[in-house]
Write a structure and sequence with these properties.
- Strands 1-2-3-4 form a four-stranded antiparallel sheet, covered by helices on one side.
- By secondary structure, the protein is α+β, with helices and mostly antiparallel strands.
- Helix 1 runs antiparallel to helix 2.
- The longest helix has 11 residues, at 27-37.
- The chain contains three helices and four strands; from the N terminus they run E-E-H-H-E-E-H.
Amino acid sequence: MCATTIQPSFQATTTRHTLRYSYFRSIEAAGCDWDAAAPAHDIFLQRPYLSIVENNPPEGMRFGYLVFYQNEEPVGVALCQIKYFKGDDNINDLNVSKQEPCFFTAWPNGSNGG
């Protein structure tokens, strides 16, 4: 395991395995532990790629990185894409006309609509 400063981690214990994870706010902070656990064949989970995306994020997005450990060895990674979401703002932005037909139709008091 490489020497990096990590934030407090969570530990989950099962009958056979003990897993824990550490959360990092930048891919560089995750360091060589990320490199050891990330699948080598997946370019989208490699530090050079993630560093570019982190330095040029989509508008309003930030990232977090999880490294999972078993017996203090890095065994897995997860990329977190974090974006502020406020439902009513997004609904208001739809610009849906109130005159557009609705897929569902309701008929009052037992009328069959015909």
